[in-house]
Amino acid sequence: MKNIIAVSAVTLASSFAAPAMAQDAGIAFDGPYVAAMAGYDNINIETPFGSGSDDGILFGGVVGFDKNINGVVLGVEGEYADSNVKESAENVLALGDRASLKTGRDLYAGMRLGGEIVPGILIYAKGGYTNAKVKASYEDANVLVTGSDELEGYRLGAGVETNVSGFLARLEYRYSDYGHYESTGLQPDRHQVAALIGYRF
After folding, report:
1. Between residues 99 and 64, which one has the greater pLDDT?
2. What confidence score (pLDDT) does residue 126 get?
3. In terms of DSSP bridges, do strands 72-83 and 98-118 run parallel, antiparallel, or are they unpaired?
4. What share of the chain is helix, strand, coil (3-state, %, to 5)?
5. Pairwise CA distance, residues 191 & 134, whole Å
C-alpha cells in the first residue's frame, strides 16, 4: 500500500510539474511586450530645385503583440517616437525663398512577419502607417508663414531580434515616405536605425 501511495504521489506531482515547467519555458517571440527605443534619425527633403537632409537622435517607446506559429512570427505593434531633427531647404517655390521643417512626435501602427533563423534569433520585415507632426515655416522677401501640420505616409523596415528569459533586444532599419507636402513641392522622407530593449510578458 505504501508503495502504491508513493507511486501515486509521484505521478500526481509529475502531472502538475510538467505543465508548470512547460509554462516556465514559454514560447520564444510570443505574447505581448513593451520596449524603449533610441537610435539615429535622418530627414531628407526633395524639392523641385534640389534637396537637403539633416540627422539627429531618435527616441521613444513601442508596445506590441506577437504570435509564434511553428517558428513563423506574426505580430502587430504601435510606436510613439520623437527626435531633434530640423531641416531647411532653399529655392523651393522661388529663388531666394526658404522652407524649414522641425520634427515632432511620430506615431506608427503596423504589422511584422518573421521567422527564427536559429533558436533565439528572429529576423523580420515590417510595414504600416506613420503619422509625423512637424512645425513648418516658409519665408521669402515678402512673407513669413509658420505653423504645424501632420505628415501621413507609410513605413517599411527590417530587423533582427533576440529574446532571453522574457527580455528582448532588437536592432532594425526603417524607411518612412510622406509623399508630397501640401502644394509646396516638398517631398520629405525618413531613414532610421533603432535599437530596442524591452520585456515580453
Report:
1. 64
2. 98
3. antiparallel
4. 10, 70, 15
5. 16
Q: Which of 57, 56, 55, 62 is nearest to 37 (CA)?
A: 62
CA dihedral 90, 92, 94, 100 (to 10 degrees): -60
Rounded to 5°, angle at Cα 158 from 153 and 161: 130
3-state SS, one letter per residue, for 140-193: CCCCEEEEEEEEEEEEEEEEEEEEECCEEEEEEEEEEECCCECCCCEEEEEEEE
pTM score:
0.77
Burial class (CB in 10 A: 0-12, 13-18, 19+), 115: middle
All cell numbers assigned to 1 = 500500500
Identify residue 151 by its one-letter amino acid code.
L
Rounded Cα–Cα distance for residues 173 and 121 (Å): 17
Contacts of 96 (CB under 8 A, 6+ apart): 90, 140, 141
Q: Which amino acid is at 155?
A: R
Average pLDDT of span 17-37: 70
Chain-centre distance for alpha carbon 191: 12
DSSP string, 69-100: ETTEEEEEEEEEEEE--EEEEESSSSTT-EEE
Residue among 56, 144, 146 at smallest CA distance from 106? 56
User: What does the pLDDT read at residue 5?
Assistant: 31
At residue 14, the pLDDT reads 43
